[in-house]
C-alpha cells in the first residue's frame, strides 16, 4: 500500500508536468467577451502568453506571436515567467522524486539519502504548484475585476479561457503529489531513526526484578 501511494504521487506529478506545459502553451488565457455593444460573434479573440489568435466561423484559426514582451499586461508578463519556472520545477521534481521512491534502485544502500531525495522532490512539486497558482489566480482576478468594472469598455472585457481551468486543475494535481510524498517521508524517517519509548514504572520494576533474579541464580551456580 505504501509503495502504491508513492507510485500514485509520481503519476500525479507527471500529470502535473504535462498540465503546466499545456497551460503555458495554450493561447486561451483570455477570451473576448460578447457583451453590450461587442456583439460581433463571427470572430473570437484568444490571448495567450506567447501569441494571440483569431478564430472566425468557417475560416481557419490565425495566430500571431507577440512582437514585444512589454505590450503584455502585468499579469501576463508575470504569468509567462512563473509558468516557465513551474515547468522546470515540475520536470526536475519528477526526476528527483523518482529517485527517492521505494521501487527504484537509486540510493538503495543509503536509506537516509533516499529519504532526503524524496522530500526534496516533494518540495519541488509544491514550489511548482505555487508558481502555477500565482499567475493563474492573478489572471483570474484581473479578468473578473475588469469584467464587472463599469469604467472598462465592453470591447476590452474578457472571459476566463480554457488555459486558466487547466492551470487550476494542475495546481491541485501538483499539490496532491507533493503532500503524498511528504506524508510518506515522515514514517520512512521514523523507521530509519527508530523511535525510543521510555519504559513505564511497572516495566522498570519488572526489569529490576529480573535483573536481581538473574544475579541470584548466577551466584548459586558459582557455589555449586
From TrEMBL:
GO terms for molecular function: structural molecule activity. Its main location: other. GO terms for cellular component: bicellular tight junction; plasma membrane. Coiled coil: none annotated. Pfam families: PMP22_Claudin. The keyword Transmembrane helix applies. Belongs to the claudin family. PANTHER family: CLAUDIN (PTHR12002). This is Claudin. It comes from Chanos chanos (Milkfish).
Amino acid at each position: 500500500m505504501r509503495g502504491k501511494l508513492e507510485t500514485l504521487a509520481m503519476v500525479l506529478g507527471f500529470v502535473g508536468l504535462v498540465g503546466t506545459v499545456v497551460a503555458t502553451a495554450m493561447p486561451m488565457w483570455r477570451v473576448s467577451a460578447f457583451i453590450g455593444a461587442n456583439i460581433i460573434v463571427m470572430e473570437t479573440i484568444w490571448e495567450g502568453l506567447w501569441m494571440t489568435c483569431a478564430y472566425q466561423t468557417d475560416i481557419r484559426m490565425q495566430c500571431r506571436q507577440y512582437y514585444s514582451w512589454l505590450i503584455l499586461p502585468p499579469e501576463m508578463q508575470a504569468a509567462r515567467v512563473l509558468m516557465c519556472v513551474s515547468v522546470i520545477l515540475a520536470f526536475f521534481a519528477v526526476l528527483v522524486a523518482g529517485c527517492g521512491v521505494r521501487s527504484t534502485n537509486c540510493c538503495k544502500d543509503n536509506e537516509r539519502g533516499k529519504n532526503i531525495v524524496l522530500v526534496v522532490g516533494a518540495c519541488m512539486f509544491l514550489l511548482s504548484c505555487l508558481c502555477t497558482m500565482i499567475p493563474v489566480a492573478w489572471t483570474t482576478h484581473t479578468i473578473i475585476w475588469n469584467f464587472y468594472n463599469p469604467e472598462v469598455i465592453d470591447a476590452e472585457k474578457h472571459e476566463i479561457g480554457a488555459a486558466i481551468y487547466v492551470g487550476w486543475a494542475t495546481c491541485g494535481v501538483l499539490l496532491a503529489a507533493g503532500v503524498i510524498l511528504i506524508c510518506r517521508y515522515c514514517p520512512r524517517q521514523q523507521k530509519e531513526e527508530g523511535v525510543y519509548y521510555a519504559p513505564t514504572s511497572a516495566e522498570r520494576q519488572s526489569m529490576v526484578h529480573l535483573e536481581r533474579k538473574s544475579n541470584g541464580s548466577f551466584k548459586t551456580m558459582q557455589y555449586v
